[in-house]
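Quick one: structure tokens for this chain, please?
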Amino acid sequence: MFVPFTAPGDRILARIESRRGDGLVATLVEVITPGSGRADPPCPHFGRCGGCTLQHLEPAAQAVWKSEILAEALARAGLGDVPCAPLVSLPPGQRRRAVFAWSARRGTARIGFNARASHTLIDLETCPLLAPALPSVLAPLRQLLAELVPEGRGDVTVTATEGGLDLLIEGEARLDLFGRETLARFAETADLARLHWRLPGGGGAEPIARRRPALVRFGAVAVEPPPGAFLQPSREGEAAIAAAVLAALDGCGGKLADLYAGCGSFTLPIAQRQRGAVHAVEGEAAPLGALAAAARAGGLTVTTETRDLARRPLTPSELAPYAAVVLDPPRAGAASQAAELARPADRRGGPGVVVMVSCAPATLARDLRLLRDGGWQIEHAMPIDQFPWSAHLEAVAVARRRDG
């Protein structure tokens, strides 16, 4: 029986609502006797907002539960013998990037996160997950959207950078001259680094204001990502992952490949540490352009390739020049690329080490099983919790070729 907002040891009254697979889903009605791991939620929105699900648990209870997530995913994939390192936990209040939903109607606007299991918008007052700069812009954003959009809804991505806040607003409204001037004034009064607007459905983002470079640092190299680009949610989490990746690559000579490279969060630290050639592969051109520009400015030997790795993974012959491969795929994982890595190595060589970074333990375990079935030894996995109070978990796993 699945009962949200409960803790181990709770004695509760619950109402059964529906079936889920072989189990039942219930709603918590009352905590009759609390368990030892229960805590008071620090956020007034907890229970309604869909962003957090674990604020009612003590940190120690959360750590135990999150450590089990990775171990259980590996066991389900037949990898129960893989050693798991102790959980690396990062505190809340460090998240530098968030995507907020917004809606405007009749001269008022709301902005925040969707309610749990709903499209209802929770008008955010505070959020203990976020770095302080992010919620500080919400009140002026409400005023802006109420003035700019008579009726509509969309998203706004807010990123804290070295130059200040970087905003990408997405909405149905088509901007006229007055709208662009209104946005430009907002960028000035809110002291933003950059402001872009984009219609829903993707496509290019229209630059409204660029008052300062919106820089982030990967290692010692400054990068200006394209608007809305993926970043690890916190600098501290990114540093913990990068340290685990670099430790796994220690002693790997020759060329290295970073697949699903994004803007270079691992490519650039690897190139700095290894002082050798790194080939970065990513499906989108804009992040690669930012990565390449930063590598040139830093004097690093980095080559780039725009390629959809889900449809066109690197083959064994293409992988032959590389001593090691790093993969940081989206939640869907890297099954196609893992299958190619699992194929027999080219006679000329091929990678002896694979480092996988993942935000989805289930797909990570699936991809690691493909490697093991292809002759790789899964050396260890490390859970990294940079998503406090949620069921999300980052992990880094290291595999070495048995015949290497």
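Residues 74 and 317 are 29 Å apart (CA to CA).
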